[in-house]
Amino acid sequence: MVSDILQTTFLGNTVAGYGIALLNIGIGIAIANLLKRLILRRLKRWAKRTTNTLDDQLVNLIERPTLWLLYLGSCYISLQNLTLSPSVYQLLRSVGIISATLLLVQLLGSVAEYSLRIYGFIHREQPNIRQSLNALIPAVRVFLWAIGIVFVLDNLGFDISAVVTGLGISGVAIALASQGILQDLFSYFSILLDRPFEIGDFIVIGDMAGTVQQVGIKTTRLRSLDGEQLILANTDLTASRVQNFQRMAQRRIAFNLGVTYETTMAQLEQIPDIIRKIIEEIPQVTFDRAHFASFEDFSLNYEIVYLVNTKDYNLYRDVQQQINLAIKQQFDQAGIEFAYPTQVLYLNQPNSSEKL
Questions:
Q1: Domain shared by 106 and 80, yes or no
Q2: Are 267 and 251 in contact (CB under 8 A)?
């Protein structure tokens, strides 16, 4: 009796076949729940032990789409053993493709958003990161949904070549019309990801210099030393050589001074020691070298090099002033004269014994 019922055919499949399919679905759901218990729960416990909430958010974001993808996969595998009519098979296939694509896009979007949030958390001390991420996350979502829609249409049998061609032609036309804006936009993302400078950095681009105030989607704003605001296109910044003085760990200073040709040999030998002692007595300054470097038209030149162990420009100028004043004082005490442009004429005096 039972065997007759199991062998009863309904819509091209026996009752036993339907039972096996349902059993496989149940086993798949059980395995999915078991994996949830073993893996996701451990991930949740690990996330709770961390100090930030980003790990907890990631587990919550991936839990639901991952579980439903496992359910959907078990149903798809279980139904492969059934003989279905073309219309029913096409209906189930379409529902499966749409559902799987929605879940997969949601999962990838969650992972991408989490990755960007982690990047923002690592660089949370930068005030422009939050603004940049808020602009980047929606763009990533739109990109993923666009790929998902194209994938679904292609697998459902729609001819998307004409659509893609039309989008391509439209994209080219839009790109040509807004070429400058798109270049600045891509430069903005390049600045965001590569981070050649940050808000508050003092940078030099060509003959312009200033402190970075804002990095926008199209332009970057600097505040110059004179007080005016400099507005530069992002494309100009990425195409230029940028000097970032904010990341300077120490400042290397080289300067020259000249003494007269009348300076004695003992004084010439004494000058490097005088300069070395002056520089070594100044805090936050490291003496490098001082050498008699060259013979010039009006002077005997010395080259002096020292390091200021800070990036503070005002402190460097204070140090240089202190060094200059000390050198002037020490040279006056030692009777050493600084050189200045002079010209000496040597004339032949007539011999008194010669007859005029």
A1: yes
A2: no
